[in-house]
TrEMBL record:
Protein's name in the database: EamA family transporter RarD
UniProt keyword annotation of Phosphoprotein present: no
Recorded topology in the membrane: Multi-pass membrane protein
Species per Swiss-Prot/TrEMBL record: Macrococcoides goetzii
TM ranges: 7-25, 37-55, 75-96, 102-122, 129-146, 181-200, 212-232, 267-286
Length: 301
C-alpha cells in the first residue's frame, strides 16, 4: 500500500472516530459531564503509558521528558496545551450531553478559521485575500446567529478557540507526538484525580459495578487512538489534504445532532452554517492553490 493511501486512511479514520464520539459520550451520560471528563483524562493517561511500555519506548520517553524540563518555553507550551485540551474535552462532553450538538459541530467548522486568526496574532502570519474573506464570512455567520436568535454561540467559540490554541502550543513543543500526548494527560492527571475525589465527597460519583462504568474504561482508547492515527496520517499526506479531511468530523457531528439526537435545525442555523461553509470553501481553495504553487516551484527548482 502506498504511503499516500495509508496517510488518507489514517487521517480519515481519525476524523471518522472523532466524528462518532458524540454517540459514545451519549452512551455514558448517566455520569455527569465532569466525571466523564475526569475519567477520560485518567484512562487516557493509563492507555498512553501502557502503549509506550508495549512499544518498548519507556527509556526514550523518560530521557526526552527529562530533556524537555530543561527547555522551559517548550515545557510551558506543553502545560498550556494540556490545560486547553482538557477545557476542550470538557466543553465538548458537556455540549453533547446537554443537547448542544449543533453548536459543537459549528465549533469544529470554525476551528480552521480560528487557527488562521491565531497564526496572524502570534506567528506573524498574513492572510491572503481568500483567507480574509473566509474569516469575514465566519464572523458574519456568528454575528447573524447572535442577532437572529439572541444567543451568542459561546460553546462553538470556546471549542474552536481552545482547539486552535492547542494546535498553536503544539507548534512550540519539539517532542515525539506519542510522548506529547502522554505528557499532556499525565499533567492533567492530578486535576482529574482531585475532581473525582471532590465528586465522591459530594456523593456524585457513579463509577462502580455497572454497565456505564465498563464503557467509561474505553475513554482512553477513544481519546488516544484517533490522535495517534492523526499523527500517522499527517506524516504521510500534505496539509492541504488534511485540511479537506478535517471536515469529516464536524459533518458527522452535525448529522448525529439532527438525525440521531433530534436537535432542531432552524433557518437561523442553516444561514449561519452556510456562512461558515462558504468561508471554509474559500479557505480550502486557498490552501489548495498554495499547495499547487509549492509543488510547481519544487518541479522548477
Amino acid at each position: 500500500m502506498q504511503e499516500n493511501t495509508k496517510g488518507v486512511l489514517y487521517a480519515g479514520g481519525a476524523y471518522l472516530l472523532w466524528g462518532l464520539l458524540p454517540t459514545y459520550w451519549r452512551s455514558v451520560d448517566t455520569f455527569n459531564p465532569y466525571e466523564i471528563l475526569f475519567h477520560r483524562v485518567i484512562w487516557s493517561a493509563v492507555f498512553m503509558v501502557i502503549l509506550i511500555v508495549v512499544l518498548k519506548k519507556w527509556g526514550t520517553f523518560k530521557t526526552d521528558t527529562k530533556a524537555l524540563f530543561n527547555r522551559k518555553k517548550e515545557l510551558i507550551a506543553l502545560i498550556i496545551a494540556s490545560i486547553v485540551i482538557m477545557v476542550n474535552w470538557g466543553i465538548f462532553i458537556w455540549a453533547i450531553n446537554n443537547h448542544h450538538v449543533l453548536q459543537a459541530s459549528l465549533g469544529y467548522y470554525i476551528n480552521p478559521l480560528m487557527s488562521i486568526a491565531l497564526g496572524f496574532i502570534f506567528m506573524k502570519e498574513r492572510f491572503n485575500i481568500l483567507e480574509t474573506f473566509a474569516i469575514i464570512f465566519a464572523a458574519i455567520g456568528v454575528l447573524y446567529m447572535t442577532i437572529s436568535s439572541g444567543t451568542f454561540p459561546l460553546i462553538s467559540i470556546i471549542l474552536a478557540m481552545s482547539f486552535a490554541l492547542y494546535g498553536l502550543m503544539k507548534k512550540f513543543v519539539n517532542i515525539d507526538a506519542i510522548y506529547s500526548i502522554a505528557l499532556e494527560t499525565i499533567i492533567s492527571l492530578p486535576v482529574a484525580m482531585l475532581g473525582l475525589f471532590l465528586l465522591a465527597r459530594q456523593g456524585e460519583q457513579h463509577f462502580g459495578m455497572n454497565h456505564t462504568s465498563f464503557l467509561i474504561l474505553f475513554a482512553g482508547i477513544a481519546t488516544a487512538v484517533p490522535l495517534i492515527m492523526f499523527t500517522a496520517g499527517t506524516k504521510r499526506i500534505p496539509l492541504s489534504l488534511i485540511g479537506f479531511l478535517q471536515y469529516i468530523s464536524p459533518t458527522l457531528i452535525l448529522l448525529q445532532g439532527v438525525f440521531l439526537f433530534g436537535e432542531s435545525f432552524s433557518m437561523t442555523d442553516l444561514l449561519t452554517f452556510l456562512c461558515i461553509w462558504t468561508g471554509l470553501i474559500l479557505y480550502s481553495y486557498s490552501k489548495y492553490m498554495q499547495f499547487k504553487a509549492m509543488k510547481r516551484k519544487k518541479l522548477l527548482s
